[in-house]
Fold this sequence. Notes:
The structure holds two protein chains of two kinds.
Chain A lengths: L4 E3 L2 E4 L5 E6 L6 E7 L6 E7 L2 E4 L8 E4 L6 E5 L8 E8 L9 E2 L3 E5 L1
Parallel strand pairs in A: 2-11
Antiparallel strand pairs in A: 1-3, 3-8, 4-5, 4-9, 5-6, 7-8, 9-10, 9-11
Chain B lengths: L2 E3 L4 E5 L4 E3 L2 E3 L5 E7 L6 E6 L5 E3 L5 E5 L4 E6 L8 E11 L2 E6 L3 E6 L1
Parallel strand pairs in B: 2-12
Antiparallel strand pairs in B: 1-4, 3-9, 5-6, 5-10, 7-8, 8-9, 10-11, 10-12
Amino acid sequence: EAGVAQSPRYKIIEKRQSVAFWCNPISGHATLYWYQQILGQGPKLLIQFQNNGVVDDSQLPKDRFSAERLKGVDSTLKIQPAKLEDSAVYLCASSQTPSGAGGYTFGSGTRLTVV
Amino acid sequence: AQSVSQHNHHVILSEAASLELGCNYSYGGTVNLFWYVQYPGQHLQLLLKYFSGDPLVKGIKGFEAEFIKSKFSFNLRKPSVQWSDTAEYFCAVNAKAGGGNKLTFGTGTQLKVEL
């Protein structure tokens, strides 16, 4: 089966600019996650969707980050305006069920550098 | 909220040495436990997972982990490492949080295997 697709792979922007990342989960996976992985740290959950509804966005910096999954399939994560500390790899993952009982599949990530 | 601790941030071993990476979690309820590996430049890949049953779980590439509920631990082991095992290893815990389940990662252990 095809994996979780993410684009772009790399992005370099200046601080205060905006950026958007795209994710297409595994077909049939209802639950989609966005994680932020800062260098030297483990991935941190930003937002979790169940179909097109938000399950958990408690760690999403809502003053600058937004995410949507309008049709319950692919998703976009946006940062506006970006700060230096947003430099990280942004990972998308999906699972068949919200419990994660079937496991999670991760995409290759988007490496963002803010200069 | 659940948390995950990985005690070793950097481990250097010679080929054929035995490996044990520590992982402890804090959460009072039912958990699912995972070990992920991230090879240089690649995405997170699942090594093994524990959901229920036999607490000794065998994964890919000769890795295994033991769930000790009384110690809240899920240590990763491999009897004889290879140079190709050089990678970063993440322990993760899936548990109920808010409206759904949440996958929480440890900070990771960077393993370097020398020839």
